[in-house]
Design goal:
The complex is a heterodimer of chains A (235) and B (246). Chain A is mostly helical. Helices cover 82% and strands 0% of the residues of chain A. Chain A has helices at 2-13, 15-50, 54-66, 69-80, 84-108, 112-120, 125-155, 168-171, 174-207, 213-222, 228-234. The termini of chain A are far apart. The chains are: A mainly alpha (235), B mainly alpha (246). At the A-B interface, α3, α4, α7, α9 and α11 of A face α5, α6, α8, α9 and α10 of B.
């Protein structure tokens, strides 16, 4: 337990160092989440809207989830060299699939009755997408973003091995920062993961249409069951 | 090979050990030197691969026993779900490298520490999926079983568990690939496995080793994922038949 007391002392004695590392950590994490978001979510929504390429949309996430993060970074070091770019690419590769699949499943599995009702009311396909499918799919889409973000913040710790900076720098450099530093950084990154998970949980609740809130709460957990279990049967 | 070279060198003068001639590819540290990989697979990578599989099997096996027991308990006693979910979600959210480092002051740098971390990551997935599977059993099936006079134990073994199997297997699949991924990180605290050559390569900057170890870990994860899909299909044949008919 002494080690943990030392860690707290370390944290408060090196506030500016910790601050810098936290900022670097969040910078690379959010950059990766942002890029993955811009690529994966629209693609998933579009595929879900068209009800096409389910094989692709679902298997991308199966493969994405199977990819060991450190192995991806390791291969990246050989190809892209050491630095920010490598880390960014690796994190985008790891974050994208979850977002893609959740967006796809969210839109694809919107109750066909609701879509049909919208069409019967004379909505154009674009209106159906924006006014019916997206609001109904939002909890699941956001669950994907949340899962991916927490995962990226956690994995960005490994960025240090590719020279990417962040809190991993302290964890991987016990020679300089001592055991207290390593534990302080570990506790900080843990706290960060919880804070971000909690904050995104609140945002998720806020973006969920009120009648769907009961559904949204379980969405993150349900997402763990690969959707191909049911998706094939339902369509 | 080294022995032969040093014998030859013994005749020709200096006693400085010379470990064979590195190929051009190695000297220039190109991205991937296939011949080096082939030559060194048995000595450097095969044992690590075996270790990796061992670590994963132990973690998923132990995780399965704990999560399965907990899920059945939660299925029978609703109150148990919340605390177990909270605790396992807590562990699941802790970043892996941080969790391993936080365990080191308590249990030391060894395989046990690695396994504690790895097991704790499997719990949430396995628990959730098992419980979801059990709760998803159609009430009609349960009623029919009850009407046929099956005891609660018989219902569990003959009706509920088989019908929950697809969800359970899906959980095992995710837990297995997640563990394979986290095991590479566990090498940082001396657990061995395919992460070990990656951390070696971080010290030396040897690109072939980066690519080889990384690719092996990726291949292992994908092969295991596919194998488990096959197992899933084999032990739940009714499911694929239904899908085919749909």
């Amino acid at each position: 337990m002494h080690a943990f007391v030392d860690a707290f002392n370390f944290f408060f004695n090196h506030l500016s160092l910790m601050g810098d590392k936290i900022v670097a950590h969040l910078a690379v994490s959010f950059a990766a989440v942002g890029i993955a978001l811009v690529i994966a979510v629209p693609l998933g929504v579009w595929l879900g809207h068209m009800h096409r390429f389910s094989f692709l949309a679902i298997n991308v996430s199966n493969i994405g989830r199977a990819l060991p993060s450190l192995a991806v970074i390791s291969i990246g070091i050989a190809i892209l060299g050491i630095g920010f770019l490598n880390v960014l690419v690796a994190l985008v590769i790891l974050a994208g699939p979850v977002m893609l699949t959740n967006a796809y499943v969210g839109v694809n599995e919107v109750d066909p009755d609701a879509v049909q009702a919208a069409r019967a009311m004379g909505m154009k396909p674009r209106q159906v997408l924006w006014r019916v499918e997206l609001p109904l799919a939002l909890p699941l889409i956001f669950a994907g973003i949340r899962t991916a973000t927490v995962f990226v913040v956690a994995t960005a710790t490994l960025a240090t091995f590719a020279g990417g900076g962040g809190l991993g720098d302290i964890i991987a450099n016990e020679a300089t920062y001592g055991t207290a530093g390593v534990i302080a950084a570990s506790l900080t990154i843990t706290a960060l993961a919880f804070l971000i998970d909690g904050a995104l949980g609140l945002v998720q609740l806020a973006v969920t249409p009120r009648p769907l809130r009961a559904l949204g709460r379980g969405a993150r957990m349900d997402a763990m069951i690969p959707p191909n279990l049911e998706a094939g049967a339902r369509r | 090979m080294i022995g032969a070279t040093s014998l030859l060198l013994a005749d020709s003068g200096p006693v400085i050990p010379k470990f064979g001639q590195a190929s051009n590819c190695i000297v220039q540290n190109k991205q991937f030197c296939a011949s080096w990989f082939v030559d060194n697979f048995n000595s450097r990578f095969a044992p690590r691969l075996v270790e990796h599989i061992e670590l994963t099997l132990i973690a998923v096996g132990v995780g399965m026993v704990i999560a399965f027991t907990a899920a059945i308990l939660a299925y029978k006693q609703d109150w148990f779900e919340r605390p177990f979910s909270l605790v396992s979600a807590f562990f699941y959210t802790i970043p892996s490298l941080a969790l391993f480092e936080l365990l080191v002051p308590i249990t030391g740098i060894n395989r046990l520490t690695a396994e504690i971390g790895l097991v704790s990551y499997t719990l949430l997935i396995l628990f959730r999926n098992t419980l979801t599977g059990l709760r998803g059993v159609p009430p009609d099936a349960l009623e029919a079983a009850r009407a046929m006079g099956l005891t609660s134990r018989q219902r569990l073994l003959r009706i509920e568990l088989p019908l929950a199997l697809p969800a359970i297997m899906a959980g095992v699949r995710i837990a297995a690939v997640t563990t394979i991924s986290l095991t590479t990180v566990a090498a940082y605290i001396g657990a061995g496995g395919l992460g070990a050559p990656i951390f070696d390569a971080i010290q030396t900057g040897f690109k072939t080793e980066f690519v080889a170890a990384g690719a092996l870990a990726v291949a292992l994860a994908i092969v295991v994922d596919l194998l488990l899909v096959l197992v899933q299909r084999t032990i739940t044949p009714w499911r694929s038949r239904r899908l085919r008919n749909a």
